[in-house]
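Morning F.,

Quick status update on the modeling queue. The single chain you submitted on Monday has been processed. Sequence for confirmation:
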Amino acid sequence: MNTDQAAIDRLAERALDRFGLDTDSTVRLLNVSENWTYRIDEPATGRTFALRVHRPGYHTAEEIESELDWIDALRGDDVVETAHVVACGDGSRVTQLATPELGERNVVLFEWLSGEMPEPEGKDLLRGFRTLGAVSARMHGHAKRWSPPPSFRRFSWDYDSTLGASGHWGRWQDGLGMGDEELDVLGRLDGVIRRRLEAYGRSPARFGLVHADIRLANLLVDGPHVRVIDFDDCGFSWFMYDFATTVSFFEDHPKVPELKDAWVDGYRSVAPLDPADEAELDTFVLLRRLLLVAWIGSHHQFATEAAELGAGFTAGSCALAEQYLSNQ
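Structure tokens below.
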């Protein structure tokens, strides 16, 4: 997907008027991944916001509205702290803006949440993963209890929509650096994952609404407060898939087993974790890794992280797959 960044910037600046913000506000791009995320600072009031410009074809306005419904429910039920959504003057929370170059885009504005991402190294890393486990347990418990509104629509992260031919992020077979040897080892991995997931099953105790990107980068710690952001990928999957997302892009790091133990400890500090669920965590890590191979292949032309990882991520995935398959 080739997109004119200047056109996206102009569209983001037009959001100031739509949301009733001061035209002297600064609009600064923070990140490009699935969407474009901007920081807006309004000098006259001292307020700060996060603006998300959605890429077309990923989520409908109804699906985005459903994401916001769950965010509100988690905060309203005192499960985790989440960002408040800012409505437009007409009361809508998902608004559409258009430019001749881009066509129409869905846009959402959030109040800025204070806090810092937990340190990704040393003892604080283990503490961060215990926090991730505890937060995940609370959110999973809420998902099992919560009754979404009838209009609730979010897609699934099941086998077909992750590794299947019509996966949300494309086919892993189209990943970068993919030759015959890579296709062979990752194809064998794909088959084992599919069989294990079929055996594991999709009972309500194992499969439901998940954050689907609950990494340290999406936690903000401010003293005693732990806040969760970026629910853009939330949807229906195995609850244990949330652990796999915590080690996204560094699944082959030697500390991952230790981080897994810390996550499990944190989870069990809040809720029971069946040994059968714990036993399948490595399978979900490999599912996620293979899904990220597909993501890099389909996103490397515009997502900075995907471009930086490149074909080397596929080579590392093959080594990780061989290690996993040797234990099956």
